[in-house]
Write a structure and sequence with these properties.
With 273 residues, this protein is of the alpha+beta class. The protein contains 6 helices and 10 strands. The strands form 3 sheets. The protein has a 4-stranded antiparallel β-sheet, with helices on one face.
């Protein structure tokens, strides 16, 4: 599933291409994705300008002139592409087509249909079921050492599990939690409440991994592509993720892989203590 860097990369691409554009026509090529589209979905979008595009956690938020925000989640295989002109034909899994007044076409394709696109009123956005209860953004000042120390102090679960808890901090999924913990030199199974004193280090490592991944266009393991259709490149810089049995770049010890809360986690037993 795309994590924060992948969604941020898509967000930046969409913003550059669509900010200020006016929606001429919306075509739904099926009735639902993970959830049904609102019955008045097309009516609430057509004729309206896109006044901004931003990210909250792993959600894309399209600010629409007037009262609405369009919320999109890419699920496991969803992606947006922007074409200068309408294609001659659409692919089987091109589920949403948004035609703009300048001639561009925005296409949402989702093979597995685990993604979603819906609408919310702006004044209700913070309390929307998809967004309520989310923790701070890892790249913003609210994700501070004092905050993280407090959050970890009440948890005796594995540190990696705590960092992937969206109520603690948003957007740090399996890949980037593994990579950040390697940089910090901390084993994934370390009890969260035993890492309180390392909150500042953890934040520094999380931010470095996320920022480096964003600069590389995210990580393409299977489905992630940018708005331009290009893949991401950060997977070529993984220190531990997906490298089970391969030598650690720092010490040469074979990277280990274990299951933690149902997810594969990767670490160096020598470099991480």
């Amino acid at each position: 599933m795309p994590e924060l860097p992948e969604v941020e990369t898509v967000c930046q691409g969409l913003k550059a291409a669509l900010d200020g554009a006016v929606i001429a026509e919306v075509t739904l090529r099926r009735k639902n994705l993970r959830i049904p589209f609102p019955e008045d979905f097309t009516q609430r979008l057509e004729g309206k300008a896109i006044t901004g595009i931003r990210r909250r956690a792993k959600y894309l938020l399209f600010d629409i002139a007037g009262e609405d925000v369009m919320i999109a989640h890419l699920g496991m295989s969803g992606h947006f592409t922007v074409a200068s002109n309408p294609p001659k034909s659409y692919e089987k899994h091109d589920h949403v087509v948004i035609r703009l007044t300048d001639g561009k076409v925005v296409i949402y394709n989702d093979v597995r249909r685990f993604g979603l696109i819906t609408l919310a009123r702006k004044e209700e956005l913070s309390e929307h079921p998809l967004l309520a209860g989310l923790g701070p953004e890892p790249l913003e000042n609210s994700f501070s050492p004092a905050y993280l120390a407090r959050a970890l102090s009440t948890r005796n679960t594995a540190l990696k599990v705590a960092l992937m808890d969206q109520s603690v901090v948003v957007g740090v999924g399996n890949i980037y939690a593994s990579e950040a913990l390697f940089l910090a030199g901390i084993k994934p199974k370390t009890p969260a409440n035993q890492a309180v004193d390392q909150a500042k280090l953890l934040i520094q490592c999380i931010r470095k991994v996320l920022n480096d991944a964003i600069k590389s266009g995210g990580s393409t393991l299977r489905d992630h592509v940018q708005v331009t259709g290009e893949t991401g490149y950060f997977q070529h810089h993984f220190n531990v993720y997906g490298r089970s049995g391969k030598p650690c770049f720092s010490c040469g010890t074979p990277i280990k892989s274990e299951r933690l809360s149902g997810r594969s986690t990767f670490f160096c037993a020598e470099c991480q203590s």
